[in-house]
Amino acid sequence: MADQANQANTPGVAPDSTPAAATATETAPDVHQDSNLVDNEYEVEVKLSDLQNDQESPLYSVSSFEQLGLPKPINDGLLAMNFKKPSKIQERALPLMLSNPPRNMIAQSQSGTGKTAAFVLTALSRVDLSKPTQPQALILAPSRELARQIQMVVQTIGQFCENLIVEAAIPGNISRTAGVKSSVVVGTPGTVMDLVRRRQFDVSQLKLLIIDEADNMLDQQGMGEQCVRVKSMLPPTIQILLFSATFPEKVMQYAERYAPNANQMKLKQQELTVKGISQMYMDCPDEREKYDILCKLYGLMTIGSSVIFVKTRESATEIQRRMEADGHKVSALHGAYEGANRDAVLDDFRSGRSKVLITTNVLARGIDVSSVSMVINYDIPMKGAGDREPDAETYLHRIGRTGRFGRVGVSISFVYDRKSFESLAKIADYYGIDLIQLSPDDWDATEKKVQDVIKSSRAKADYAPNVTSG
What we know:
Layout lengths: L13 E2 L6 E2 L21 E3 L24 H9 L7 H10 L7 E4 L6 H12 L10 E4 L3 H14 L8 E4 L14 E4 L1 H9 L10 E4 L2 H5 L5 H9 L6 E6 L4 H10 L4 E4 L10 E7 L3 H10 L1 H4 L3 E5 L3 H13 L5 E3 L5 H13 L4 E4 L12 E6 L4 E2 L5 E2 L1 H8 L9 E7 L2 H14 L4 E3 L4 H12 L16
């Protein structure tokens, strides 16, 4: 289930250097005993839009879900899931997102801090359930896997909402004869665009557009053009909420145009890495020996479950073939698989029937499998023509598949030459991470370092990235 937890404090309000904004920062404690989820320590900065910069709209937060005035069925759904107190981002974001008249929001917060639950609560609160087949809230995600996961979260939190219908607008899932017949729609931008064009998706009464993983979705190298086209098809008065763990500066500038006059929430760059994850690297002798070292790690991978990230589909398929031939049970998932096969592979991984999953960046974002204790970057994520520069944002999203909600987790990145070593070093410097070196020549020491983390109750403080306040 999506992200959550923590303790409320009375917020401070301080004027920004410009009169058109107000900001506030707070540090959250590491764990709250009354919730089944946790917040890492971090500071939340809230910047109010020009529209809210007046004395009648002060910045405020809530200490309980009850204070939000949510309908009883939604509160009952939260209680059933043991969500007892709002997380830090929920304390700050929900009062602003639920205010009337509706305001746009750009929210950035690290994995496992409550983003999904925050926007799902907003969607459920905006929907008129007396019109169960009339689309009123649209949530866009970059992959079918994440769309299905969000659909499940909406259904779970909304389990007591009578007449709630939630559909996934992903390839092969919406009947061409019936079209979209639900109040909440979760989909990928290409499929949504096609459905609207074919007049199988009535968008005339949509009140809310939510974009998850918005940095990737709005990036012009990614799905930016599709998201622009989708927005152009929707009512101009629609409320827009943009969520992501990362927002590079150029994407943030674009997001501010996509969601004009938006309230904003963000973390400092050095506070973005996930504190519960021990981030390690394996210095492999050469590229050929990477595979042998990967197989040596197999026993550690299956203590919980593990995700191996590789650069290409072909590499994922080939590593799966070789590992299975060597007697290891693994599965692979990437964009070349048909939709139903992708669903089945991910369902097997979620259930524990499969414990080691090899994948490309298709699963780097948003996917939550609670048992994942290890992420392996078999290939360091790169970007740009010819893979010229390290992709720090993708690294952060990849390792965020483990250490969810304060559980321990390990990430191991493989390096084998000057380029891979320097690329990982740049990522570590970007986030202020102290990487732990693992040696392939001393396997007993390597196994002990990894096992100590996986079997501990929480990640050790000295394995955490450096965090600066402000």
